[in-house]
Amino acid sequence: MDKNSSMYKTILLAVVCSVAGACLAAVNAVTKPIITDNALAAVKTTLNQFYPDGTFSDVTSKYVTKDTDLVDGVYEAEGKGYIFTLHNTGYSSSGFKFAIAFNNDGTIEGYMALEQQETSGKGSLAFDQDYADEVKKLTSLDAMPLISGATITTSAVGAAVKQAETIFNSIANISGEPASQASASAEASSGATTNSGATSSASASSGAKTSDTLGTGDYASAKASCTATSSGAFACRATGFDGADVTATILVKDGAITSIKDLTGKDNGDGMGDAWYSDASVFNGATLDSSIDAMSGATFTSKAVKGMAAAALKAAAQQ
Hints:
- With 319 residues, the protein is of the alpha+beta class.
- It folds into 2 domains: 56-181; 220-317.
- It is built from 6 helices and 11 strands.
- The chain has a 5-stranded antiparallel beta sheet, with helices on both faces. The protein has a 4-stranded antiparallel beta sheet with strand order 8-9-10-11.
- It is elongated.
């Protein structure tokens, strides 16, 4: 065959391409496991934070799609659960990265920041230990708590986690869609959070109910005090959100609260704690042995009102 013919050149090019392709495939077969192992080794320190000495597999390519673009990595901890590395952009334009781990039963094993430059005391609260502890009480069907004052950052965290939950629930055959996030309350910058079931009533959202009674609860931070104005009537004062004064007149008869009147506070009108000011009838009939649910997202106002109720009941017991 004439070496200058187009046929010869076409066949030669095809042979060269075939040989090159075979060589690349061979090189890829050798290097791909090494690259995968190196990538896994790079995150193993993070994975071990959740499951020390676990056996891990990188299953990212198996589960991440264009619909889960906030998920950077998915790692299986053999016999234990799955760890997700995630990213999003919160208040800081530089964005953040974090990891969350789900046990095989759907409970959350842990949550931690990997990289973040959110505003200290605001967005940074989304990566503090207090917030991480709240997250560990959730499951793969729950929304991430929001922090008022860090709404942008915690909403971004929640959006990424929802993608991870969708993947995990599919893997673990857990039915149900992850809950949508609730709006944040105003009581927040110091760490008060609201979860997916937050309501404007005195009852707490699902999973946020208190187990203490008015007689045993720790309301020291509210600095509640009551002064008797007449038999069974007490003028009470406490500290609410951001140091705001909360006051009320509490009536007690036979060891039980009959009503809370004129409940007001300087933080009234700021947000979700307002529901306490509009209706505190949940305390009617309450004694020191009663357990009153805190209002999710209104931690400080809840402590203030409960602290005053406890103080009034204790003062009445001394009359």
